[in-house]
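Can't paste images in this forum, so I'm doing it all in text. The chain is below; anyone willing to post the predicted structure tokens underneath?
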Amino acid sequence: MVAERNETAEELLRRLHPYQYTALQEALDAWKSGIRRQLVVLPTGTGKTVLFAVLPLFFQFRKRVLVLVHRDTLAEQARDTIREWNPYAGPVGIEMGNKYRSRNERIVVASVQTIGKFAMSESQGSRSFHVSKRLLKFHPDEFDAVIVDECHHAVASGYKNILRYFGFLDDSFAKVQPGPNRILFGVTATPKRLDKRSLYEVFDLNAFEYPIEEAIREGWLVNPRCFRIRTSVRLDDSDLNSEDLEKLSRKVNIPARNQLIVQEWLSKANDRKTVCFAVDVQHAVDLALCFRNAGVKATAVWGDDPDRDRKLKDFKRGRYQVICNCEILTEGYDDRSVSAIILARPTESESLFKQMIGRGTRLEPGVINILQWDAYGRPVSKRDCIILEVLDAYSTEHSLAMTFSEAFDLPAELDLNGAGLLEVRDTINHLKPCLQYTERSSSPAQAPLEQVKNLNELHQILAEKLHVTVEEIDLFRVKFDTNVLLHSQLAWHRIGHENYVLVLPYQMGYIRLWRNHRGVIMIDGSKLQEWHRFVLSRQTPREHFGHGFRAADEEVLQRFGRKIFDICRRDIQSDAWKSLPASPATMLRLKHICAKHGIPLPETITRGEACLLMTKMIADSISEPPPTGQQSTVLKETV
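Text version of the structure:
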């Protein structure tokens, strides 16, 4: 989505995504209150560049704006995005290498390497700075804003020199109040630095942060699904030193490890366009060769590769399926058709780890929001991104090497085994309230969350806890997922990401609707009474989940008839009997449950309302994971 040339400024700003508008409004409110150094945190792929492209328009600045970047490709991308999104900005200049801005450009994108160079001397307790002539051509009083892209780099000396020049820092690099209207505005996806230095050395306020789980849940990013590849390569934490990548490469760039990576990719992601991250140039080259030996169209690319631009264009056009790279596709690279990431490079940097994953979580070309596309019935082929995490053996019990689980604040030892981030997060969030009410025992099923190693253990803990406490719900507002409201007539209760339950009456059991690790939607009636059991699978992997709802609704109608179908409808006024008062027995049961949790129960409640409440409580108590792999195959064979 880009701005149209004939749009008014107000129309342009209305086209921002809701979270982008909120971020700018929060920053504007803070600026008006006198906070001049702010940063905003948005996940990779959610439009950070768009944010600062329209910031001068949103803040109604009249003077010039400087945008700082640290890579040449980022400078050109920033310029192009500003041109697309802010036609009112006029010409956009670049100050970098052999490119020079003119004095007529209201927005200038500058390379920190070009204008940030300086020499410093101290004499009798005072400092003297000798800055780049390229920087001296900028007059701070002409600028309303300094914007820092990828601002987790902003504590580096080159950045601090520029910020000192523009009045945000003093000669000792301590923060000072800048001019009355000037703002320092930073954007990043990864505010945590490996060296533990705080961005508050430079900034005063994190004005807005948009968690990646919210971005996925609201349809702006796809859900990452992680598989762990364990190797027998033994590493020490000292091997992760980014200053000595040759040492790390000698250990990990071996035929056995490379071949294992290719084998795992062939079994889990062989139909996906893939970016592989390697330790160094030779590692990237050898991995690409290993892929080609397996019949896969693959290539390697690195920073000073003379064929870099051609290879990247060929990869984008689909002439290669796998591209193995060394340190050039971590920031600013945007190919929305990538749907698999291989993390063949160990790192202890959470920032780098998330940047690598972010190359695959963007939506496919042409799709603005998955939920919107689903609502309009438009096809969406990319709904997730497979992450292949290569985990080596370490000499210490707790290695410094970053893992998917640690990066996203999940139990450190948890192996997702193909589960999605949202699915695991939902399971943990479902479990935490239960742990608050009960004491932990020494049994394995009640081990602390930090020690949980797989989803089965999580579900085992949840099942054991739920017999003691039921998660509190708003009894009088049973809410249904947007997908249910759009695509089904029945009371499907959401118990996880793309995981729903329909509870049938007369103690018949329940049907589960879920998507398996291969992306196939399953209609699973294996928990029904024995003579009703069935398991069906849809034929098309990664199809829109609405098709699954419609097929499941039809299956319920065909198998169980109109009476059961109508009882299961979520509309509490769909039949006359649902408007009748609940029976004394039902009221007694509800009253007992409500009293247990301190929730008041009205004197009257309809049968339809009572039916929804009961099914909701039953659905919330269902904790066992859906069958996967061989289990689901066995079930299908018994149909």
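The radius of gyration is 28 Å. The chain has four domains: 9-210, 219-409, 424-466, 482-637.
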